[in-house]
Design goal:
By secondary structure, the chain is of the alpha/beta class. 40% of the residues lie in helices and 24% in strands. Helix 3 packs parallel to helix 4. It is elongated and about 100 Å long.
Length: 387
Amino acid sequence: MAVKILSVDDEAPLELLMRQFFRRKIRNGEYEFFFAHNGLEALEVLHQQPDIEIVLSDINMPEMDGLTLLSRINEMQRSALKVIMVSAYGDMKNIRQAMNNGAFDFATKPIDMDDLSLTIEKAVKQIEFVHRTQKEHSQLVSLKEDLSVAAQIQQYILPRTFPPFPEVADRVDVAASMVAATDIGGDFYDFFPLDEEHYAFEIADVCGKGIPAALFMAVSRTLIRSKGMQGLSAAQCISECNNLLAAYSVDAMFVTVFYAVYNVRTGVMTYCNAGHNPPLIVHADGSVEQLPATEDLVVGVFADFTFHEFTHSLNHGDAIIMYTDGVNEAWNASHEGFGMARLQQVMAQCASRSSRQIVDAVSQAIHVFTADAEQNDDITMLVIKRL
């Protein structure tokens, strides 16, 4: 598209000179000129042609001078519009004032048309830069809005109602939280009933952050829930999900998963740990132990890998905390990690607390430890307690 240029000057011969000198650019559709004889006429032209991007304005004109016109143009707040002031060489005081008031550049009379052409070309490049910046800003705003919607969707697909299973609320106490390090995260947790006695619980951490991790998270969660609800054992569920994810993995993405089937009547939990942080168990007497890991690979890397499962029984009053590495690896300002020792110390003080109180206690301890340090990873926890 042609760059639209408005020439404002009360000297009539200047219009003919402009048309003659820039005739090739006008003919080739590079420049399109408009003309006005004073500031008032210029404002009217600018109103009629809002896409004018360069104004060549004389300073000394009747009815409205160039400096007043410049101030009126500034009020329009059109960042791409560039004003080039024109005046006699001896009028440097007004030229300096124009430059101080935001003029892009200036030319002196008698006008050197070659020099003016270079000045206009420089203005065109600056205008193109402004347009690119505005476009990139609009794209960033749009992306930010999309990320905000994605974050809402991500939070929506995670279970948010507690207690989640009113029918067994007197047998098991459940609480969870997920705080993403960025707008959207790669961590997730889930739980769902399998039958009247058995309930599935899972927590997972997708490699990476941002949109790719969030998409992989959504796919992983859907697959695990779908396979789990088919009544597969913990190891079978993870094995089948692994085969599906490995077949379609992009850029070697993977997910660590702790998946458990819990019997709310007996307290027996059968679980598979696919490269995830081993959960901690706090007993009613305040002692804390780490759940033995099945030492299996992460999910989504190698198909046909044989996963394993272990069994553990929760006693009455025992609570198990599943967490992602954003918990134990939370950094403070000195890049010191929160660590397992601190996590176990917090857990030891939570023997008599509810699952929600345990989640809140760990969250508060991390908050105090990290202070003003930027969150470096998603912080996700899932706690179940046998009542």
